[in-house]
Prior knowledge:
The complex is a heterodimer of chains A (114) and B (117). In chain A, 0% of the residues lie in helices and 55% in strands. With 114 residues, chain A is an all-beta fold. In chain A, strands 2, 4, 5, 9, 10 and 11 form a six-stranded mixed sheet that branches. In chain A, strands 1-3-8-7-6 form a five-stranded antiparallel sheet, with no helix packed on it. In chain A, strand 7 (64-68) and strand 8 form a beta hairpin. Chain A is globular, with a radius of gyration of 14 Å. In chain B, the strands form two sheets. In chain B, strands 2, 4, 5, 6, 9, 10 and 11 form a seven-stranded mixed sheet that branches. Chain B is an all-beta fold. Chain B is globular and about 35 Å long. The N and C termini of chain B lie far apart (32 Å). The chains are: A mainly beta (114), B mainly beta (117). The interface between A and B is medium-sized, with 25 and 24 residues.
Amino acid sequence: AQSVTQLGSHVSVSEGALVLLRCNYSSSVPPYLFWYVQYPNQGLQLLLKYTSAATLVKGINGFEAEFKKSETSFHLTKPSAHMSDAAEYFCAVIFSGGYQKVTFGTGTKLQVIP
Amino acid sequence: DADVTQTPRNRITKTGKRIMLECSQTKGHDRMYWYRQDPGLGLRLIYYSFDVKDINKGEISDGYSVSRQAQAKFSLSLESAIPNQTALYFCATSDSSPGQGFGGELFFGEGSRLTVL
Lengths: 114, 117
């Protein structure tokens, strides 16, 4: 079955440290991939998306993600965490043949420690 | 004003009551969605509509119904609310599939927090 998995429901990093949030999908055909961010008491907003152009995708606020077909992964990274990055991050996928519906991962809450 | 507006933002109700959550958008998008967010479960799709005459069930539609009154309005109803429907509900819109250029992005409202006692 097609699915999307985010490893780690909570991730803590120190301010200035590397942020790495993991996302893997299960599909034989590369899907369309997205990362969304949810700040407290707000809706989700798009960070970045992969739509079969470049495999390294740059998003807002210094985040980027790399699509790796061989690993069926789309991990989100940021070289240096800032306090304002504290939020919940969701990986989302549109699977081929999925009638263009978006499937979300379970989310990863990022805590940034001063 | 927000592009995707949800009302009410917060609602507390009792078991067995009928509840309607409303969503309106000014983005001009054809596609509208209702999601439910629960801690540790991410967002799960309840219903979606690709145009006014096209409404489809999502993965957790039992206990819910929807109405697409116009291109800009999509409401979610709980005919007889139960406590396990306590959740944060999001309306979202999108303009096209990702195969049509750079579409596929969802635009979210700020959410409606529903508590069923």
